[in-house]
Specification:
248 residues; mainly alpha; Rhopdopsin 7-helix transmembrane proteins; 10 helices; elongated
Length: 248
């Protein structure tokens, strides 16, 4: 991810909207994996698996900020692909530097404000009895299981937020790609059609890697939840996806 950001920054040929958005995605991936893996590695090699309340809240904040920001950014990248394929002659006019900066700002600000609200509300619940989190990171739902107050109303709020963060961007993404595929089908040139599909396939793969595990974690009924399966799905979203994105 660091090399990708550096290459995009130093090579003037890569100073385009698509590569600017890719550099933002790489930055988010790098920070996302940095919010979990160093602590996991320290715990593994030292044998000490403790975390202060402040550190737990900090990890929740950064993990949610980057996860939500990435969801928004990936969705906005589908608009970039839509303009490139469906309206190529006006691409540079529509996807101006100002628009790209606005897309980046919306992603970061949206992620920060949403995660700040959830982090503050989650950490205000008192915890009694066992303080052992059944997870490899401080995660909102795992913390709520330890709360000694009724958190059912807030759990519904978490699910509602998740629906908004996942389904609204996913709906926008599917709409963009429906229009893209219609435009591709109308292309007369096989070469142009193949180029368009190749451009979109990498973005589609990233979307599946990101949204798939997140939807399985938060959209399953509570009766189907198991700590081990949730940990595996979080590993896919929080570690495997940031590693795979630069290769894709």
């Amino acid at each position: 991810n660091s090399i990708l950001i550096l290459l995009i920054w130093v090579d003037s040929h890569l100073h385009t909207p698509m590569y600017f958005l890719l550099s933002q995605l790489a930055l988010m991936d790098m920070m996302l994996i940095s919010s979990t893996v160093p602590k996991m590695a320290t715990d593994f090699f030292s044998g000490r698996r403790n975390l202060s309340r402040v550190a737990c809240g900090t990890q929740i904040f950064f993990f949610l900020t980057l996860g939500i920001a990435e969801s928004i950014l990936i969705t906005l990248m589908s608009y970039d692909r839509y303009v490139a394929i469906c309206d190529p002659l006006r691409y540079t006019l529509i996807m101006s530097q100002k628009v790209c900066l606005q897309m980046s700002a919306i992603s970061w600000v949206g992620g920060t404000l949403t995660s700040l609200a959830h982090m503050a509300y989650t950490m205000h619940f008192p915890i009694s009895g066992s303080k052992e989190i059944s997870h490899f990171l401080c995660e909102v739902m795992a913390i709520l299981k330890l709360a000694c107050e009724d958190v059912s109303a807030y759990e519904k709020a978490v699910v509602t937020t998740t629906v908004m963060v996942l389904f609204i961007p996913l709906s926008f993404f599917l709409s963009s790609y429906a229009l893209i595929f219609l435009a591709v089908l109308r292309m007369n040139s096989p070469e142009g059609r193949n180029k368009a599909l190749a451009t979109c396939s990498s973005h589609l793969t990233v979307v599946i890697l990101y949204f798939g595990p997140a939807m399985l974690v938060y959209m399953r009924p509570s009766s189907y939840h198991s700590p081990k399966l949730d940990e595996v799905l979080f590993m896919l979203g929080a570690i495997l996806t940031p590693v795979m994105n630069p290769l894709i």
